[in-house]
Structure formats: structure tokens, C-alpha cells
Amino acid sequence: MDAFFKTLGEKGGTAAITEMCKGTLLETQNGAQLEAFGPQLDAAFKIYGRISRIESVDGKVFGDSFIRIRVIAYHASGAPMFWDFMFFRGKTDWEIYIFRFADQFDRVFGNNP
Question: Is the per-residue pLDDT at 113 higher than 60?
Fold first, then answer.
């Protein structure tokens, strides 16, 4: 995830998503959606500004092959953006399975803070 946020800050949403998802099951199943997601992410950055810091919220393991990691990214405007990443152990290594972001807490983390 560190590489994802670094690329996101330096090269934008499309490059960060491409780098994180290249060769994964997510790319195979949802390639067209991933292509559309980068510009949406870049549009959010135009509103909120660059990420100024990232705060880890939690990580939860599901069995031996799934992990969910949640973070909050704080932007130059002061606004938080909430991220949810899920990884699974693929044939050879860990890979991204699902990720999403939202500017509203309950969209990613549920209704209970």
C-alpha cells in the first residue's frame, strides 16, 4: 500500500491503480472498471488536494489467505478520505482483491464509528 500511495501522489490515480492491479485477478475480472476508476480518483484529488499524511486504522486477518487493511488519508485541504483494501494470497504472492475509497466515513467503515 505504501507504493500505491507514493505512486498516487507522484503520478496520479491511473498509474497507481495500474501498478497495484497489474497481473491480478482484480484486473482480469474488472479491467474496464479499473480504467474508469483512475480519473475518478484524480477528480477527488482536485477537490481535496494532495495527501499530506496517512493514518492506519486497522488490519483484520481472515483465515490464512485474506487480510483487510483500512486507512485514512488526510489531504492538504484538511479533509479525510477513507480507504479499505483487501488482499488475498494468490498462486505466488499476495495481491489486491478489492479496494475502495470514500469521503464519507459510513461508506467504507459502516454506520458505527
Answer: no
Residues 6 or more apart from 60 whose CB is under 8 A from it? 67, 68
Three cell numbers at 38? 483512475
Calculate ∠ Cα 52-20-112, nearest 5°: 60
Q: How far apart are CA 70 and CA 99, in angstroms?
A: 10
pTM: 0.85
**Closest among 40, 33, 48, 52 to 13, alpha carbons compared:** 40
Distances 59 to 33, 44, 45, 67, 68 between C-alpha atoms, Å: 26, 25, 25, 7, 5
